[in-house]
Design a protein that fits this description.
This protein is mainly alpha-helical. The chain contains 12 helices and no strands. The longest helix has about 30 residues.
Amino acid sequence: MAETAKRSPNLKKWLIRAAGSSLILGILFWILPTDEVLAGFARLPLATFALVLLAFLFGHVMTAAKWWFLLGRTVTFPLALRAHLAGLAANLCLPGVAGGDAVRAALVHSTMQDGARLTAGAVADRLIDMLALACLAFAGFMMLNTDTIGVEVVIAMLLILLVLVGGAVYVLPRAITWLWTKRPNLPARGFMLRVAEAFGLLGRSPGLLFMAFVASFCIQLFFIFLTIQLATAIGLDVGVVVWVFAWPLAKLLAVAPISLGGLGVREATLAALMAPFGAEAAGVVTTGLIWQAVLFSAGAIGGLIWVFSSGRQSAPLSENGSSKL
């Protein structure tokens, strides 16, 4: 009974987000000419979709490597990769990217046995990704050299993310340590102090943080390139700079917990952001939906990889990378 009650709120959240995606997609298909959207799908060569899917999976191998380094390489890379791919699969049925993050963390924790370091690495990884997306959007905006979107908004978002990353790595550990030292009766004192220590460890590795940021920036730029290939294949001709500006902003907004993995939100945001630059809304939405098909296909592949390799358990590693067993 308790397990059923626990599942009920999760199911409710999933249904709410599914309804959000359905509503947004319904509005889009009501406004846009459905025949043009379907024609766009028909124009996409299957070989192009397959190549983009393979390239996307390669990008996530690099993403898993970035996360692995932020965890201090305390587990084997194959385990980190399989957990990351399982997180991709979780995004098919769990709301938002946070669902995938929780799944990959849980799968690694059973071997890593260091929840504090895992928490610090996951938070840093997510904030660095968001900062990279904001920097890409800002770079695209500056290259557009237009007043269509207020520069103050873009700069403000960039500054907020910079403060969040800096605060999480440098300010949060001190705040946690001070609070739980002054108030020893607060719950989870030991765990919170270990989390503060783990964040402090990351803060003492600026080179690692910079490397993770550069990796995230390049990976996200690579994903934009893949999206452009899909758009070109269906006949949508939009400048590269417009994609560099709009794609990261749409991905950031898609994190909002109102849809399933950003389905509907990403497409609507892309169409709205790119319309002032002459992009055909039907083509943009079609490209976005094809990209969602890539995401879902990659998630399904990730789930299969985890299922068929779940019997292999990897030992946690010591700081020098050797097995603890």
